[in-house]
Every structure is written in structure tokens, then in C-alpha cells.
Specification:
It is built from three helices and no strands. The protein has helices spanning about 35-60, 65-85, 85-115. α1 runs antiparallel to α3. The longest helix is centred in the C-terminal third of the chain and has 30 residues, at about 85-115. The radius of gyration is 28 Å and the shape is rod-shaped.
């Protein structure tokens, strides 16, 4: 009989070690952080660009020239995006306000440190 760890023919010996635990998923960026603000801006701008592109495509399919369709789509997309993308705009406003508050707090801390008001 061969020892349990030998590798003669057959299947390799099974290991009793468990696989390493998976790394936890990264948490979403906190409100006001540069990553959260950049994501909110990107989502809002992308949604508006897609809306303009979709409206332009529909107008071109109807038979309008591309430039005229693009101009009309830009004009129509502004009020339409205010209605359709309210949650994205609210998130963007919240991120901008949090980023502004963070900058103001940091500026006050730096001023206090310069004055010597630890």
C-alpha cells in the first residue's frame, strides 16, 4: 500500500484546505467623495446624451436632415430631461452639496490651523 500523499496514477490527493474567502465588494463611494461626484456627473451627462441621440435618431427616421434633427433634439431634450432624469439630477445636486460642504470644512480646518486655533 502506498502512502496517502503519493502520486502514482489515478487522481491527485485531495487537500483539506478551504479556498480563501472572497474579498468583500468595494463599498460605494461615500456621498461627497470625488468618486461619488464623478459617478453622478457621468450618469447624468450620459443619460442626457443618450436622450439627445435617441431623439435625433427618431427625427432622422421621420425624414428630417441630420443637423435640423440634432438642433430640434437638443431643444426638446432640455425640458424632457428635467422630467425624466429627476432622480439623477437630485443625486447630482446632493453630491455637489456634500462636496462643497467638505471643501468648506477643510478650508475652515486649514484656516484654524494657520491661526493656531487647534
Amino acid at each position: 500500500m502506498e502512502p496517502a500523499g503519493s502520486s502514482s496514477g489515478g487522481t491527485p490527493p485531495s487537500s483539506d484546505t478551504t479556498p480563501p474567502p472572497e474579498a468583500p465588494a468595494p463599498a460605494p463611494a461615500p456621498s461627497g467623495s470625488p468618486g461619488g461626484l464623478a459617478l453622478a456627473i457621468t450618469l447624468y451627462v450620459a443619460a442626457r446624451v443618450v436622450l439627445v441621440a435617441a431623439l435625433t435618431g427618431v427625427l432622422v427616421l421621420v425624414g428630417l436632415p441630420l443637423l435640423l434633427a440634432l438642433i430640434i433634439a437638443l431643444v426638446v431634450a432640455l425640458p424632457l430631461s428635467l422630467l425624466l432624469f429627476r432622480p439623477l439630477r437630485t443625486r447630482l445636486n446632493r453630491e455637489l452639496a456634500a462636496a462643497g460642504a467638505g471643501r468648506r470644512a477643510q478650508r475652515e480646518r486649514l484656516r484654524a490651523e494657520l491661526r493656531g486655533d487647534q
